[in-house]
Fold:
Amino acid sequence: MKVAGEAMRPLRGSAQRDAVQVIDQRLLPHRLQLETLNTPQQVFTAIRDMWVRGAPLIGATAAYGLALQMRLDASDDALEAAADVLRTARPTAVNLDWAIHRMLRVLRPLPPAARATAAWDAADAIAEDDVAVNAAIGRHGLVLLQAAAERKAAAGRPGPVNVLTHCNAGWLATVDWGTATAPIYQGHAAGLPLHVWVDETRPRNQGASLTAWELGQAGVPHTLIADNAGGHLMQHGQVDLVIVGCDRVTARGDVCNKIGTYLKALAAHDNGLPFYVAMPTSTLDLTLSDGVAEIPIEDRSGREVTHLSGRTAAGEVVEVCVTAEGTTAANPAFDVTPARLVTGLITERGTVAADAGALRRLMETPR
Ligand code: MRU
Structure:
């Protein structure tokens, strides 16, 4: 996607194959700052501390982390140790483990001397595949947006298709396009009238600071809302459909995504609105079934709830505390939406029902 007219990605391997450049997403939307990562340790820190975030992006970044390790020491021990460390950087998004597995499948059979080149090629392939996968999700999701526009017109309801999204499943969360945003960007480019309700997504505000910024850069009409506003808007006919991303989807279609997603799904269900999840198949974890019981949920610092950061009128970015001294806060970072609340999963292979049979058939169908 473009920022101020210039093509931009949140992750790029260097031409010399000795570093990766990332956007430090902690600083957006106030500052667009690129950082260079030269070692697997730096990659680990960038994922753990959320310079890079979003399920597909942390997978691709970890792949480059292993590639950087192979430049330093490509022995079996070094490979396994780096893989073990990188996969613990964050616990919930399965894409991290998926990307590391894909790298290990390529690297383990090779002699150490061949690993550095092969690892960089494999990391590049993961990154480029992500772009193609998200573009395909965009094409399949666009059909749903067009259908929503037709339904709206047939019902004599004027105005754009109103999409509600939660967190940031945009291009910043992937190598390009985003997942939930890919249909929106493609629809906007095709001239489909669209408007996006952007949940602020407390406590880290990925909606307010990242999704709203992205949509603004692309010229997509959007409105930021407090997380609690979605249900009200749905009751008043101001939402036509919901599209969110995901961090892990189980074999039976339970969807884990940013905390608060479940409440949006409940509200959509109560109002008879379609609730779609954009899911690259790299986010499918066929080893798990019951999402609520089995998906590991990241527990983050309570400080993210008690403190907020923002820009003062003087342009300085500061952090403030919003609670009384000593208030303790809990901060589960993700929740699980049961499959029964999901209208469909928009994948790179098409849109499917969130159920075990549909997902099995999707994965078994030769490509
Ligand atoms: O904690 P984050 O910012 O990494 O959480 C991101 C999300 O929950 C996204 O919705 C998900 O990773 C999908 S990104 C295409």
Remarks:
- The CA atoms of residues 24 and 114 lie 32 Å apart.
- The domain at 137-364 is CATH 3.40.50.10470 (Rossmann fold).
